[in-house]
Amino acid sequence: MDTFMGFSVHMDFEGQRLAERLFQIIVVTFGAVGWLYGYYVQDFFMTVATLGAGFVLACLVTLPPWPIYRRYPLKWAPAQDSAASISGGESSSAKKKKK
């Protein structure tokens, strides 16, 4: 299933790599900034709240399959007839057994 209610629901492999990299960058950046800000104001809650905001932002940016994550679609091989491939596979294995 490629669509749900008219929206595309897949990412290609390059898009998955980009999404993972963006997620890591956003969470680490917000974590570092949150730690610095929390240390400055001497409030651990601000550190956790900043990290939580970064996590929510990272989820909104990376979880939906935005068009930026679908720029390199896979080129699939054409479908083969299953009956021909099964009979071809059996005949070659049968020849190997006879030897």
Gist of the model:
66% of the residues lie in helices and 4% in strands.
Question: Which key phrases capture this entry?
Answer:
99 residues, mainly alpha, two-stranded antiparallel sheet, 3 helices
Structure in words:
Helices cover 66% and strands 4% of the residues. With 99 residues, it is mostly helical. It has a two-stranded antiparallel ribbon with strand order 1-2. The radius of gyration is 25 Å and the shape is elongated. The mean pLDDT is 85.
Write the layout of secondary structure elements.
Elements: E1 3-4, E2 7-8, H1 13-41, H2 44-62, H3 82-98
Antiparallel strand pairs: 1-2
Q: First CA to last CA: what distance?
A: 45 Å
Number of helices: 3
User: How would you spell out the order of helices and strands?
Assistant: EEHHH
Shape: elongated
Strand residue content? under 5%
Radius of gyration over C-alpha positions, nearest whole angstrom: 25 Å
Share of residues in helices = 55-70%
> What ranges have pLDDT less than 50 throughout 5 or more consecutive residues?
none
The profile of the biggest β sheet is: 2 strands, antiparallel
Please count the beta strands (DSSP E, at least 2 residues each). Answer: 2
Can you give the mean pLDDT? 85
The secondary-structure class comes to mainly alpha
Question: For the largest beta sheet, what order do the strands appear in spatially?
Answer: 1-2
